[in-house]
C-alpha cells in the first residue's frame, strides 16, 4: 500500500494545478476582505440611528416632564420617572459620543441604560422601547462585556472572527465538498485510463493495498485543506489581534426564542463536519469505483442517499444518525446547545465503521484491473444507419465530457434553486419571529406617541378643571380621554402579536399569522377607489383562494405588486417602508410548482442558455480549427449545408432534451419535499389596457390586471424558453457559419446576447421595440405582463414574444443555410 500512496502523492504534488487551490483561497480572502472593508460602518450606522432615536425620545419626554412640573407639579412616581429619564439621557449621551468617534465599545453603557429603562417602565411612564428586544439586546451586551468585546460589523465583517465565519461558510460548503469529490474521481479515472492498475497488479499488489492506497492520500489531504483554509481564514483576525472575537454572540432564532451563540461554535463545527462529510463521500466513491461503474452512475448513486437524507431532514426534522446535518440544517439544531460535540463524535465513529466495512469490498476478487469500456477513449465509432451526423456530434461532445459536465451543471443550477427555495421555507419561523418583532416595534412607537397625547390631554383637563373649580366651586365630572382608546388598541395589538410569537413552529401558525395580518390590514380604513394594485389584488386573490379552497403561500395576506417593489422607491425612507412591507408578506412554499415558479421568476434560464452556448453547442466553425474533421465529412460526400443543418438540429435537441430531463428530475425532488403544489394558484398578470371584461383597474397605479393560474403561466414560460433556445441556436449557428474559430463564435454570441438583453431592458419603451427578440428573454416578466407595463405597450406580450423569437430565429437559420461562402 505504501507504494500506491507514494505514487498518488507524487502525482498530486507534481501537478501544476495543485498551487491553484491556495492561490484561489488567497484571492477569495483578499477580494472579500477588500469588498467588506469598503462597505463597513453598517453596524455603527444602525447603532447610531437606534440610539439617536432613543435620545431624541428621551429628550422630548424630559422636556415634557419638566413643563408639567412647572405647571402642576409631579407625583412621587412621576418624579422617579423624570430622574430615570435624566439618567437614561446621560448614558445615551455617552453612547452617542462614542459612536460619533467610531468607538463601538458601548456594552457597559448599554447595560446601564437598559437597567435604567426597566426601572423607568416600572413607574408611571411612557414606554417607547420593545421590552422583549431590549432584553435580547441586554443579553448580547452582557456577553460582550464579559469577554471585553465591543460591537462589531456583522453584515460585512473584515477583521474579526465574523469574517472568518463568513469565509468558513464559503470554503467548507457543499459546493467545495462536491468539487473535492470530482477531483478525486478525475485522479482515479485518469490513472485507470492510463492502465496504472495493471502496473500495480504486475508488481503483486493486492486489491486492498491498491484501493486503500488511493483512498488514504485524499483522506490525508482533507485535514491538510482544512488546516490551510482555516489558517488563511484566521490570518486577518490574528494579524489585527482580534482573535478574542471568537466569543462574539450571534443571534439564532429557535422557535419563538432568540438565543445567543458564540462564533467559535461555527469555527469548530464547520471544518470538522465538512471534513467528516467529504471523507464519507470519498469512501463511498472508491467502493463504487471498485465495481467499475461510470462517473455518471457514480454521481447518481452518491446523490441519491444525499437527497434521501435531505428529504428526511426536511420532512421529519433533526436526527443524530443523519449525516446531511454535517453541511446543512445544523445551526438551530446543534449550535445553541453542546449537542454538536456528541453529533460530531458519532459521525466520526460512522466514518471509522465505513472504512472498516470497505475492507471486504476492496479485498474481493470480483473485479479485474483492466481498462473498462467506459474508460477507453479508443473505442471505434460504429454509427447506426440513421441520423449518423447527429450521432457523430454526440460522440464528439460525449468523449470530451461536455454532455456529462453540462448535465451536472444543470442539476446544480435547477437543484440549487429547489434546495434554496426549501431552505428559505425552512427558515420561515425565524423570518416570522423577526417580522413579528418589527411589527411590535411599530406598535410601541405608535403607543408612545398616543400615550404622550393622552397624558397631555389629561394634564390640560386637570388644569382646566382646577380653574373651573376655583371660580365656580362646582363639582367637576371628568370626560373620557379620547386618546385612551387608541393607546389601549396599541397595547392590544402588541399583546396579540406577543401571543402569536408563541405559536411559531406549530402546524397552524401560517393560518394564524394571516388571520392576524388581516386584522392589521392597512387598507381597511381607506376608500377602495384609492387602493393601489397591491390592495385590490390582495383582496381579489384572497377571494379566489377562499373560493377554490387553496392554502395561501406564507407569510402575509397581501400580494405585493411590482408597483410597490422596493426598487421603485423615491428615497431611502420610502425604500425602508416598501422593504418592510415586502418582508411582512413574503411568499414562500416548498412545493414542486413553487420551485419552478421561483426558478423562472429569478430568470435563471439566461445562465442555463449561457452554459449551453459555452459548453454544449457545436458549429461549423468548430470543424475548421484545430480539427479538420469537416474535410473528412465533406469527402463522404456530405454538403456543408447538411452539416450546418445537422449541427443546428443537434444543438436544439440536446439543449431541450437535457433541460427537460434535469428539470423533471429536480421537479420530482421538490415534489418529494413539498408535494406538487396548487396548480390553480392565482398569480397577478398585468395589462396596459382593457381588452376583456374581467379586468380589474387601479386608478392609483393606472393599471389593469387579472389573475391566471400558476400552471398556465409555467407552461407559457416553457414555450417561451423553447422559443429562446430556437432563436439563440440560429444566432449561434449563423455566427459559426461566418467565423472560422469556434471560441470566437462562442464569445461573439454571448456578447451579442447579453448586450442585446441589456439594451432591450434599458430602452424597452422605444417604439417598435416589441419586435426586438431580446426583449423577450426576461421570461417571467413577459408571461406575467409586467414587461408591457415597463414598455407602456400592450404589444409586448407572450404571443408576440414567441412570434418574434421564432420568426427571427427562422430568418437567421435561413441566412446561415443560404450562405454560399464563409465570411471572415
From TrEMBL:
Keywords, ordered alphabetically: Membrane, Transmembrane, Transmembrane helix
Q: Does the keyword DNA-binding apply?
A: no
Q: From the record, give the transmembrane residue ranges.
A: 17-35, 167-189, 210-232, 266-289, 296-320, 340-362, 403-421, 602-620, 648-673, 703-731, 743-760, 798-818
Q: Would you indicate the residue range of the signal peptide?
A: none
Transmembrane keyword on record: yes
What is this protein's name? Answer: ABC-type transport system involved in multi-copper enzyme maturation permease subunit
Name the lineage: Bacteria, Bacillati, Bacillota, Bacilli, Bacillales
